[in-house]
Amino acid sequence: DIQMTQSPSSLSASVGDRVTITCRASQSIGTYLNWYQQKPGKAPKLLIYAASNLQSGVPSHFRGSGSGTDFTLTITSLQPEDFATYSCQQSYITPYTFGQGTKLAIK
Amino acid sequence: QVQLVESGGGLVKPGGSLRLSCAASGFTFNDYFMTWIRQAPGKGLEWVAFISSDSGLTNYADSVKGRFTISRDNDKKSLYLEMNSLRVDDTAVYYCARSEDYGENDYWGQGTLVTVSS
Question: Would you call B103 and A43 a contact, using CB atoms and an 8 Å cutoff?
Fold first, then answer.
């Protein structure tokens, strides 16, 4: 199975900050990388698919980049509603494994 | 609007069985692959299984292979997960999700909790 490793596991930031979360795959996955946001008690929400494509309705201050094994989710100018857990997922080869998640908390 | 509603979760003893259902509405169900994803309490997301639009292709995580069966009824716009030989570590919230062309899951249900405990 492809292992997905996110870093950091947690971080704290302030409203207005720029935040970067990284996701590394154990083998090349092209651009088959998706990012999800999850708030406590809620289902995950798709933010980015195919590494850099913004899902419809997602604010433009979310950006995804990368290819091969290294990927980045950047949140520019954090908003109060952005504090949540973020998970990456590879959809290159089944099982479509997820990273362990990155919890973004308010500083 | 797209809606996915899971049901069938509950408390079951180790070794027991349970069948989850997911009712879909607001889109052409038989055009899409569908996926089950689970999340153990306080843990990350785990992909469980998917099924193609015509049920011709299924795929499972190793952790559930041979114990779980994914199926669908396109006439009823419903997705199912038959879970047998349940173990304590199958305890999780189970989500059904619609799968798009790139394998991403663009719509999710609210989840149903399965608790395996004696």
Answer: no
